[in-house]
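Quick check before the chapter quiz. The format below is the same one you will see on the exam, so make sure you can read both the input and the output lines.
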Amino acid sequence: MAMYTGWEKALKEQFSEEIVHVDDATREKLSKDYYWYSPVLNRQLEHIQAADAVLIPRNADEVARILAFGYQHHIPVTVRGAGTGNYGQAVPLQGGIVMDLSRMDEILEIGPGFARLQCGVRLSIIDKKAREAGQEIRIYPSTYVKATVGGFVSGGSGGIGSITHGNLWDGNVLEAVVYTMEETPQRLVIRGDELVNYIHNYGTTGIMTEVTIPLSPRTDWAQAIAHFDTFENSMLFGEALAREDAIPKRLVAPMEWPIPSYFVPFAKVIKAELAAVMLEFAEDSLPLVEALAARYGGCIGHYMEAKQYRKTIGVSDFTWNHTTLWAMKTDASMTYLQAGFKLDSYIEQIRELKAKFGDEVYLHFEWVRSGGAITPTALPVVRFRSEERLYEIIAFCESIGVKIFDPHTWVLDHGGRGEVGSMERKKRENDPRGLLNPGKIMVET
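Here is the expected output.
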């Protein structure tokens, strides 16, 4: 244990045993996240020393006290939700304190069109309570069951529902309560354009304790798998469905073969050698979806009625980064990329990418709205051969106009985060000693 000199005794004097955890098992467990999705990050982070202490506050006052303590003793503080992030967001690169906010799990208010929440509430719990009230959450990641709302806002971007409601930046966060790391931490209430400095920030610009998110009216969602003879036809169908306002939807995920073969629980309903599109749409829209699939030479091969929603493993459990997880379970050499294709030329980009790399890159797309515009985003499954080869693939993608959001780095500046300059300025203001999750933004002083 590499406790920073001079503060172990003070820590135990100021905080109860219920809050402070310094045993090896807890420190090791809560100093890691799902960075092992990336062989690059796994090599770089698997031997990083655990935090010196884990603190698990029960309320915002204790969060503020921990931040004041860290400031006083020059101790880094790394915030953690459920630890389901893939980029090393929750890994304490410089030791110090990991602050686990999972105990702050109260639903403070569900009102018409919104939910006000402590940051440690799990998304699945929020959705269950919202649906009981005739509403539902608008977007969520494939880690829906475990992920916390604060962790999603601070470390995620989009997910199921993004085809209709966009990403987190597209009005999917209404308000956040954030604490600064200063001698006397400030309680900030963040709204409007200023939220951009706190979404997908890894807890570097402040510690979020509450968040308010919008809710939509509850919909009866059916799930389905559409099959197509060619991947290009599956993509064209996906675009047409994405554009069809008459069909309420929250998932349109085309995948080239053999990706669907990795989905072992669905083995009996997956058609071999065919591209598959994983779908969620309003149950009463089934005839429209079937007709649209037929227009592109496809058909609905598997269908789950709305009454099965969340009662068994569903279609969305194989989408977004869970697609990568299923691939890795089948073939440990697999990893992934995050990419933005161009709406007016994605077919040409797909052809160039496949011609260059063949079965080294398997394509998995998620149709979304980004800034209100229909966008073909992708999480390609990549056969990892070496770090050098991985970045050759990235360089080729960028040479043909495919934008890569690098998932093999923990540095926000390198991962394609567009507002990082504004975020750096806010970090200097809210964290003058650069102690909040240090190493995740390049400019910290």
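If your answer matched, good. The chain has a mean pLDDT of 95.
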